[in-house]
Design brief:
- The complex is a heterodimer.
- Chain A contains 15 helices and no strands.
- Chain A is an all-alpha fold.
- Chain A has a domain of 220 residues: Cytochrome c oxidase-like, subunit I domain (Cytochrome C Oxidase, Chain A).
- The radius of gyration of chain A is 22 Å and the shape is globular.
- Chain B has two domains: 39 residues; 106 residues, Cytochrome c-like domain (Cytochrome Bc1 Complex, Chain D, domain 2).
- Chain B is built from five helices and two strands.
- In chain B, strands 1-2 form a two-stranded antiparallel sheet.
- The model of chain B has no long low-confidence stretch (mean pLDDT 96).
- Classes of the chains: A mainly alpha, B mainly alpha.
- Chains A and B meet through helix 2, helix 4, helix 7, helix 8 and helix 9 of A and helix 1, helix 2, strand 1 and strand 2 of B.
Chain lengths: 457, 148
């Protein structure tokens, strides 16, 4: 570690991992409720567990992004962080707001939560993924501003690299598009339309810039490939991301009351969306092949390659599977969407966090060449358990979604929703099994932190 | 492939392409915002419909149900529930909704459970009006059949 202020990243990473454990745990509760509808009712109804599951995911990714940024920006800028103190304060503010919000979901009925947080003054609650009380949303904006100020000042005063500029652009976009979370018109169609400005333009837009920047940083560090070369790839990948991803928002505007031209525009633009992810695979493997150093931290590179592959499968392949309007007509709002969501979030955003954590954590713990051989072997096992677990979950959901289409939406004697779901229960059991494997993988990953061994010399 | 492209070219593709995409998307957004009132028959958004939408949000209905295909996939689609459960008749749909909401949670072992939300008759009517309005949005003939 070159700059002492990089250390502020550590609590961010640890907290992100703790939240990830909670996220997976609530995923298992949801998976169980798909099999046994009574499970934990009325203590934790499905909608509450789902809010906790998805909100933990979002918050943990934000913590991970912040940790990654605090770690890599001083090193890229070749100077200490503008204000390590501010980074520590925002950690506690954000952690407190996050925990309080999750407890709010769990402890009182949602309608009560809207009342005690004065949602009626500026109603923003009760929309998918944006369920946070308005006051939490305001808190997120304040934390984001403090964070961007801190990072922006560091970048401006230091060496500017392609990685930091792309990262900062992504973070600014993240903050700007979040502002649409405060716009809730009475017209459901407009509400949905601009809701996607947050959701889609985050995950299929600006977050990919952040992902690209983190991946580029780790690849430079573990392969030693010339920065100029990495930069060129980074530009090409994020160019494809923005060109396809921004207009590709249109694949959400097929059947929500928006004009018919989106059927064409959304289909064509989003058909290109797998391309940047495919480029990312070529890039990760090409950089490995052209590497100039043999870094002892092998597992970080494994995570980097895994990120590229699983993100391509989840976001690229599973996304493309149902992104064309005539196909989406039948698959819209089925478990196929859930399949795509699970694998793309895991592949793109959880795995990139594992990548940077795998690279940075050992250094912050004084192991400059990565963890020892034994710890890396444990981590490698956890890698495969989680990857196979998530692939299994997603494949099961693809099957569930396909069954749903053919039982409920095609043919003359279509069954109703609840009857269809009853038919799919065996598949949900399989999904739950792979969920358990994923949890086991995560626990193995945690264990790898405690494997005793001297760092590799 | 990448050998023929210089870093400057890549950067120009990024900035040029990014700005182009943003402009196209902004233009289409403006057109869409202009067309939505007609497609959604926004003149029919009464105070009751707006309040129904607010109640829909306040009780996190989208945490289990989908509406026009968006939401959670744990409970039935509700954008066309007016046709499916009310047969397109407002009076019978409102009566159905009141008895349905009152009978939750149903005491059927192992069945997915809908919580009791303790809404007044007026509030249930508002939600019904919101769902009736929603069912009339021009959403390119989605869903494929009445089952949603």
């Amino acid at each position: 570690m070159k700059y002492s202020s990089q250390m502020v990243a550590k609590p961010y990473f640890i907290f992100a991992l703790v939240l990830l454990a909670g996220e997976v745990l609530f995923g298992l509760i949801l998976g169980t409720q798909y099999v046994a509808g009574d499970f934990l009712f009325p203590e934790i109804p499905f909608n509450v567990a789902r809010m906790v599951h998805t909100n933990l995911l979002i918050v943990l990714i934000l913590f991970g992004f912040m940790g990654a940024t605090y770690y890599l920006v001083p090193e890229e800028s070749e100077r200490e962080l503008w204000s390590p103190w501010l980074a520590k304060i925002t950690f506690w503010v954000f952690a407190f707001a996050g925990v309080a919000t999750i407890l709010g979901y769990l402890l009182v009925p949602y309608a009560t939560l809207t009342e005690i947080t004065y949602n009626n003054i500026l109603p923003t609650m009760g929309r998918e993924f944006l369920e946070q009380p308005t006051i939490t949303k305001i808190g997120i904006v304040i934390v984001a501003l403090a964070f961007i100020l801190n990072i922006g000042m560091t970048v401006l005063k230091g060496r500017k690299t392609v990685i930091t500029v792309v990262l900062l652009t992504g973070l600014l976009g993240l903050a700007v598009f979040f502002l649409f979370a405060f716009y809730v018109p009475d017209n459901l169609v407009l509400d949905k339309f601009f809701w996607w400005y947050v959701v889609h333009l985050w995950v299929e837009g600006v977050w990919e810039l952040i992902l690209g920047a983190i991946l580029a940083f780790v690849l430079i560090k573990v392969t030693g490939v010339d920065r100029e070369h990495i930069d060129k790839w980074l530009y090409l990948i994020i160019a494809m991301t923005l060109i396809s991803g921004i207009v590709g928002t249109g694949h959400h505007f097929f059947y929500i009351g928006t004009p018919g031209y989106w059927l064409w525009i959304g289909s064509i633009a989003s058909a290109v969306e797998p391309l940047p992810f495919f480029l990312m695979i070529l890039y990760a493997f090409a950089m490995e092949k052209q590497r100039r150093i043999d870094h002892d931290n092998k597992i970080a590179l494994t995570w980097a390659k895994g990120t590229a592959i699983i993100a391509f499968l989840g976001a690229g392949v599973l996304g493309f599977l149902h992104t064309l309007a005539p196909v989406n007509y039948f698959t819209h709002g089925t478990q196929l969407t859930a399949a795509h969501g699970h694998l793309s979030f895991f592949g793109a955003y959880i795995m990139i966090l594992f990548t940077i954590i795998s690279y940075a954590m050992p250094i912050m713990r004084g192991r400059l060449h990565g963890n020892g051989v034994k710890a890396q072997a444990v981590e490698r096992r956890s890698f495969w358990m989680m990857v196979i677990g998530m692939l299994g979950i997603s494949l099961a959901l693809v099957i569930a979604g396909t069954m749903q289409v053919f039982i409920q939406r095609v043919g003359v004697d279509a069954l109703g929703f609840m009857e269809t779901q009853a038919e799919i229960v065996p598949v949900y059991v399989v999904r739950l099994g792979f969920g358990l494997l994923t949890l086991l993988g995560l626990l193995t990953y945690f264990y790898s932190f405690f494997v005793k061994e001297e760092g590799v010399k | 492939m990448s050998e023929r492209i210089t870093k400057n070219m890549a950067r120009n593709i990024y900035f040029g392409g990014g700005v182009f995409a943003i402009l196209v998307f902004a233009g289409l957004t403006m057109d869409t915002v202009g067309q939505v009132p007609k497609l959604s028959k926004s003149e029919n958004i009464t105070e009751s419909v707006a309040h129904g939408k607010h109640l829909w949000e306040k009780n996190n209905c989208v945490g289990c149900h989908t509406i026009m295909g968006e939401g959670a996939y744990y409970a039935p689609e509700l954008a066309n529930v007016f046709e499916r459960r009310g047969g397109g008749n407002e009076e019978s749909f409102k009566a159905y909704m009141k008895s349905w909401m009152a009978s939750q949670p149903m005491d059927v072992p192992n069945r997915r459970k809908m919580p009791q939300f303790n809404l007044s008759d007026k509030e249930v009517d508002d939600i019904s009006n919101f769902l009736i309005w929603t069912s009339k949005i021009d959403d390119n003939e989605w869903p494929p059949n009445i089952e949603g």
